[in-house]
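Q: Convert this sequence to structure tokens.
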Amino acid sequence: MQAYERRIWSNFDVLIAVSENDKKYMNESASADNIFVIPNGIDVDHFQNQAAAKVPLSLIYTGQMGWYPNEDAVIYFVNKILPSIKKRVPDVQFLIVGGNATKRVRQLGKGNNGIQITGHVNDILPYIDKAAVFVVPLRIGSGTRIKILEAFALGKPVISTSIGCEGLEVRDGENILIADEPNEFAKKTTTLLNDELFRKRLGDAGRKLVKEKYDWEVISEKIGELRNSLEKMVREN
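A:
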């Protein structure tokens, strides 16, 4: 894949990266002058709070569960983090939403352990909206996580590893919580579950960030600016 990326990048005059981190990686094989950063985005207005009743003391993770980083994330969370949360919040529930769950992921939901595997759903929006806290315990990956933008748009408090929120303009304690050690992740998650006002403050800050930085209207303006500058360069040359 690395060889393919390097070969393909050399065929184009302009490259677009979704984050500064990705630009640095691409710059190893392509000129930085040809690489522009335009972040991923979502239609924020589509992600409006639903009328469904909220589920207290609930955690959610979303993703294509046949993809190894997602599989690793939920297995890591259930084995290394969730037990510590349960000691403090015995009634906590963990919902894993996404299709193509592997055998190892499906096994997580066996027994009466408060873990539910939904499989594929037609619309993840109501599932996210009902949950109390959105967790992103990713340990592998690149680019930027659309799932965090979706949670932000719904005003959900998010706790993530550093890798999970890599590339996004987030600040720990301001619009997201970041934790890389299992005990720290469990402690911060427990704090969120037990503090409704803190959840709301963090969720409101996340929605404000996604509206200002990652809404499709904002992204389209950036693309338009890039297009205009390229057209100007072509005319001048």
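The CA atoms of residues 57 and 193 lie 6 Å apart.
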